[in-house]
Structures are given as C-alpha cells and as structure tokens.
Sequence to fold (118 residues):
Amino acid sequence: MARGDTRARTGLDTFLLASTALVWASAVIVMGILAYLVSRGWGGDHVIYELVISVLTTAFYLFAFFLGAYPGYVLLFNLIFSYLWLVAVSFTASDWTYSNSALLHTAEAFSFIALLIV
Fold:
C-alpha cells in the first residue's frame, strides 16, 4: 500500500498540520504581547523566559512547516516544547492571574492554549 494512501485514510497529517498551526498562532500572539511588555519596561525573569519560549516555538514550528510536517519532527518538537510551555504557563499563572490587565490575561490564556495543544 502506498504511503500517501495510509496518511489520507488516517487523517494524521491534517490533524498535525492543524494542531501545529494553532500552537504556532498562539506562540505568535504570546510573543507579540510579551515583546510589547518588554519594550515598555517589563523585564522580569519570567517575562523574558516566556518570550524566549514563544520565539523558539515560533521559529521551530515554522521550520517544521517547511520540512513538510513529518510526524517525527512535529512530535519531537511537541515533546520538547510541552515541558517548556508547562513552565511558562505556571509562571504566567503565578504572576498574572490576579492582575486587572486584560493584556496580561490574554497572554496567560494563549500560553495555556499553546500548552494544551502541544
């Protein structure tokens, strides 16, 4: 049986592409918000860590798109970044849950979405 037939029948490539696109979009949103906060003077350790994780996620997942989204590469990125996003979500939850800023809550929510999908 041809390789393309099995992928079309299982739908794995479509699912991986959709989940990778959602993680990438969430990382881009978090990256934009955190870059804005850093440019405004918020330079704590947690903010810088989350910014680095979102930048790395954006870069590596964009690289995975150009590799043709082979399941091996995407699953490797998911394994590595799941632990990094877990720490990032715990930082945002401990720092910003009780703030009154909608921008901080948005960064927290999209960090959580990236963790769930990864």
